[in-house]
Amino acid sequence: MSVAMRMSRGGSKKRPYYKIVIADVRAPRDGKFIERIGSYNPLLAKDDEKRVVLDTERAKHWLDIGAKPSDRVARFLDAAGLLKREARNNPNKGKPGEKATERVEEKAEKAAAAEEAAKEAAAAPAEEAPVEEAAAETPAEETPAAEEAAPAEVAKAEEAPAEDAAAEDKAEG
């Protein structure tokens, strides 16, 4: 007779509660079982000691006899130190594909080129300082005209909230 360590669901709708049982593999999930060795309440906090209750002596006995645990029960047994469960994730599955790797390499090359250009640009201004000073003096003469335009823009900006408030009053009324 093949024996499995698995969970049997109880509880009401959307409020699950599981019994960890030893059952014949041919028996239905919530049907007849040989022995109950623990319980699992997923509604409790993960650090709560009553979330998983397991009779370790009986679990060890059934493992020695040859009972096969389900994936979830194997996790519980691994946490209890009774069974070494291998990780089931495929580490290669999470790696990026060829095209994504190429895009990352291209991006790194562009970033390196940008850094080199920035270094060259930082070295070049020291040599061209007199030209930049002459360019800086020219906008200074045009500054008064820019100041005259600025108050007009400020006035328009002040009028806009007043118009919005009037529109809101009409909408409320």
From TrEMBL:
Bias (Basic and acidic residues): 95-119
GO biological process terms held by the UniProt record: translation
InterPro entries assigned: Ribosomal_bS16 (IPR000307), Ribosomal_bS16_dom_sf (IPR023803)
Location of the region described as Disordered in the Swiss-Prot/TrEMBL record: 82-173
One term of GO molecular function: structural constituent of ribosome
Regions of compositional bias (Low complexity) in chain numbering: 136-154
A Pfam match: Ribosomal_S16
Stated name of the protein: Small ribosomal subunit protein bS16
UniProt entry tagged with the keyword Phosphoprotein: no
Organism: Parasphingorhabdus halotolerans
Family matches, as SUPFAM superfamilies: Ribosomal protein S16
Domain of life: Bacteria
Family recorded in the similarity comment: Belongs to the bacterial ribosomal protein bS16 family.
Keywords noted in UniProt: Ribonucleoprotein, Ribosomal protein
GO CC list: cytoplasm; small ribosomal subunit
